[in-house]
Amino acid sequence: MPESSRFDQASGRSNNFSTSGVRRLLISIAALEKLGAIFKIRQRWRRSSGHPTAPLTKAGGYDFYGEGALIWLEVDTTIRSGTGGKKSLDDFLALFYGNGTDTGPDTLPFTFENLVNALNTVYPHDWASFFKERLHELTPAAPLGGFTQGGYRLVYRDTPNAWTAPAGKKDFEYSIAMKVRPDGVITEVLIGGIADKAGFASGMKLLPVNGKPFSIDQLQRAIRSAKGATAPIECAVENNGVATTLTLAHHGGEQYSALERDAGTTDRLLEIATPR
Questions:
Q1: Distance (Å, rounded) from C-alpha 249 to C-alpha 86?
Q2: Which residue segment(s) compose the domain that 206 sits in?
Q3: DSSP bridge pairs for 154
Q4: Which of 26, 42, 273, 274 has its CA at 20 to 30 Å from residue 79's CA atom?
Q5: Cβ-based neighbour number of residue 226 at 10 Å
């Protein structure tokens, strides 16, 4: 499978949904309109940035776009694995949207039962429980079954992956659990993460880092130099005109998400990415 495609899933998508599920995904969808208004006056919690078992963040955005892609990836790999690669999500789509024929554009309302019945026609499985668990139940992590059934595991490395490297992105959400703009303003903090526990919050502005003027490169150097050390990263911050000093006890270096091939398993992601 092309490396950039794999890392689109591992990085571009894991930023949105690879964190703890301490609420139901469907709540996010049902509350879309209300949340749009609420966001104008206060930030809200959502699944974002961080490791699969990390807590929620306070930030904008909607879970269901990226997490929905993960759920359907798992549907595809479940069908492929269960049928030995003879059937896939393509078969479901042809049946569900086209009734098995070549049809023109049309509007076809459907129910949850319609969807489950169509999936069972393609590959008999407890699809009702599958979706209810992922849409309604409180889960400790994002649905990563599509990765594992696809022959990969989600890991974290200290070098940018094939998705972020060409763009020159320097992500800190997997290391110090927050996002920072080039001007030093913190835009997102992982609730329960290292930065949050140290007192950092969205809207604060980073000033000197380890005694040197802030820059993205300086923050990156500080994270690298703290790896394996004992001294914390010292940050001067400004919040509503008040300056203070906060410290980050992070010694794991840089962290970037990546998909690592699980030897001895079928590469279902390669099958999915193969032109057809």
A1: 50
A2: 178-248
A3: 259
A4: 26
A5: 22
Within the chain, strands assigned E span: 44-46, 57-59, 152-157, 178-180, 186-190, 205-209, 233-239, 242-248, 256-261
Q: Which residue has the higher pLDDT, 206 or 2?
A: 206
Cα-based distances in Å from 95 to 88, 92, 110, 125, 275? 12, 5, 13, 16, 20
Question: Is residue 171 included in any domain, yes or no?
Answer: no
pLDDT for position 64 = 61
Distance (Å, rounded) from C-alpha 29 to C-alpha 32?
Answer: 5
Neighbours of 243 (CB within 10 A): 10
Q: Which pLDDT tens digit goes with each residue over 27-60?
A: 444 544 444 444 443 343 444 444 444 444 444 4
DSSP three-state, residue 230 = coil
Q: Could you tell me if 41 and 145 lie in one domain?
A: yes
Query: Same domain for 183 and 134?
Result: no
Give the dihedral sign, CA 226/230/235/239: positive
What is the tally of structural domains in the chain?
A: 2
Count how many residues are written for the chain: 276
Computed on alpha carbons and rounded to an integer, the radius of gyration of the chain in Å comes to: 21
As to burial, measured by CB atoms within 10 angstroms (0-12 exposed, 13-18 middle, 19+ buried), residue 268 is buried
In a domain, 169, yes or no: no
Are 184 and 266 in the same domain?
A: no
